[in-house]
Amino acid sequence: MQSAAAFGSGVLRPCPAPPLRGPSSSRPLLPARPLRVSSSTAAAAAAASSTGCSALGARALGFGLLPASLERERKARHVACGAGAAKAKEEEGGGLLKTLQLGAMFGLWYLFNIYFNIYNKQDDSVLKVFPYPINITIVQFAVGAVVSVLMWMTGILKLPKISGAQLVAILPLALVHTMGNLFTNMSLGKVAVSFTHTIKAMEPFFSVLLSAIFLGEIPTVSVVLSLLPIVGGVALASITEASFNWAGFWSAMASNVTFQSRNVLSKKLMVKKEGQESLDNINLFSIITVMSFFLLAPVTFFTEGIKITPAALQSAGLNVNQVLTRSLLAALCFHAYQQVSYMILAVVSPVTHSVGNCVKRVVVIVTSVLFFKTPVSPINSLGTAIALAGVFLYSQLKRLKPKPKTA
Fold first, then answer.
1. pLDDT along the chain (407 residues), means of 10
2. What is the enclosing helix (H) or strand (E) of 405?
3. Are 153 and 270 in contact (CB under 8 A)?
4. How many CB atoms lie within 10 A of CB 331?
5. pTM of the entire structure?
6. Which residue stretches of 303-377 are H helix?
7. End-to-end CA distance of the chain
8. How far apart are CA 19 and CA 151, in angstroms?
């Protein structure tokens, strides 16, 4: 077959076709004359042949002289080829958009978490004179509950149809969620932000331990070995931490236990039953937030009492506007970073989310050290780095390990 260049911009003149004669006459029905193909038709045929979009290339097309059925097939394949190319281009653009959206969500997750720790630590600095961490926690849950209800009322978030059985199953999750956030605030009030997050790097250790006890998941040897640098790094950072005290240390440890208990309970209890509508992650988090507020409200009333009031703050000699503003901003960032975390978990694998959480902890530790000018020794930095490296290794091994054996 001749190449597209052979057609040029002129006229193709193959050998003249023999004249077509009638059955009973020697006179030709049609005069013999060469076939003429325009340059546009030839170029189109050559393009079709070179791209492979149609099984009928320039040679098979006959340059516009096909029977009607083949001509229709050619046109149909040409349309299908164009539609396929457009769809591929659309998918490529959609994939890029999804990547950008995911990157933006990770950025917001880190940003909200950074500001939560900054505002919360500033609040907790106030709590050294005004020591009521339960009040700070109830404010955070109250703001989160209001945001969740507004999202349901405005239709931003679809109001879930939830049964009584599901509420009973969610109640333990809300309970440990409440305790985990309360213990985190108590720890932040006692030690530096960087040290709290270094201790919280031990979450994988408690995840493996609790999963083995309650779910019967036996970890592999490699996963167990990856916990050694985590435990060793936290221990090294603890003995060299300038702000170390046992109250802050055990509060952070209790936060690890409760948060990982929440994860284990979610696997054990939140099973979709026949006839029940499954909850998406955002609705689940919103329901947990509302329930946490109602769980903590009576505890606040019977223990610390309602202390976040202008009169109480003023009597303590504190700047009322400053404390209330920081408490509100901390509460908004608290709800925002956890909700974005659940949104990310809905579109990525748990392992990817775990790696992102490890990176987030590094970012929070570094920014808090810089913002609060926390004194950090070289050995303390080494211990933190070893612990975080162990968390990353654990995340990678969780992805590579086979399905855990059950006892």
1. 45 49 50 50 48 46 51 62 60 75 92 88 62 89 94 90 86 92 89 87 86 84 90 89 88 90 69 56 89 96 88 82 85 90 81 80 88 86 91 82 51
2. strand 405-406
3. no
4. 25
5. 0.68
6. 310-315, 320-345, 350-372
7. 70
8. 81
